[in-house]
Every structure is written in C-alpha cells, then in structure tokens.
Amino acid sequence: LRDLKIKTGTVKRLFKDENSYHKESESQQKHIDKLISEGADEHDISKQKEVLQESLNMIPDCQNRLKEAQKELQ
C-alpha cells in the first residue's frame, strides 16, 4: 500500500511538472514576442530564447519519466 501511494504521488507530481513546463513555455514565448515588438536588445532576446529552449527540452524528458512512472504503477 505504501509503494502504491508513493508511485501514485510520483505520477501526480510528474503530470503537474509537465503542465508547468507547458505553461512556462507559453509565458516565455509571449515575453519574447513582447521584447521583439518593443525592439529590445538582441542579446536580451537571445537569452530569453535560451530560457524558452530549456523549458521546451524538459517537456519530452518529463513525458518519458511520466510514462515510466505510469508503467510502474500498473
């Protein structure tokens, strides 16, 4: 029973993490679009794009961990 609770908690956390990365990516993209429209410094824009890319790179990793956790739960 204890293992079941732990594995269920892991799946819930990973699901929340994935949603968080999606929301963060959307927010970051809006921020980048705003910087571009305001004519911000190219260096600032490129740094924000790096932050966006980091978030986007975390989504597949999180999805893989979620799939593994779901398999363990079954």
Explain what the structure shows.
This protein has a single domain (2-73), classed as Methane Monooxygenase Hydroxylase, Chain G, domain 1. With 74 residues, the chain is mostly helical. It has 2 helices and no strands. Helices cover 92% and strands 0% of the residues. It is rod-shaped. Its main location: cytoplasm. One of its GO terms (molecular function) is beta-tubulin binding. One of its GO terms (cellular component) is cytosol.
Summarize the structure.
GO terms for molecular function: beta-tubulin binding. The chain is an all-alpha fold.
List keywords for this structure.
cytoskeleton, 0% strand, mainly alpha, 74 residues, Methane Monooxygenase Hydroxylase, Chain G, domain 1, 2 helices
Would you give the CATH topology?
Methane Monooxygenase Hydroxylase, Chain G, domain 1
Low-confidence stretches: none
Order of helices and strands: HH
Termini distance? 13 Å
Class based on secondary structure composition and strand pairing: mainly alpha
Q: Tell me the domain tally.
A: 1
DSSP helix fraction: over 70%
Per the principal axes of the C-alpha atoms, what is the gross shape? rod-shaped
Major β-sheet annotation: none
Instruction: Calculate Rg over CA atoms.
Output: 17 Å
Query: How many DSSP H or I helices?
Result: 2
The appropriate CATH architecture is Up-down Bundle
Protein name: Tubulin-specific chaperone A
Main location: cytoplasm
Family: Belongs to the TBCA family.
Pfam family, one: TBCA
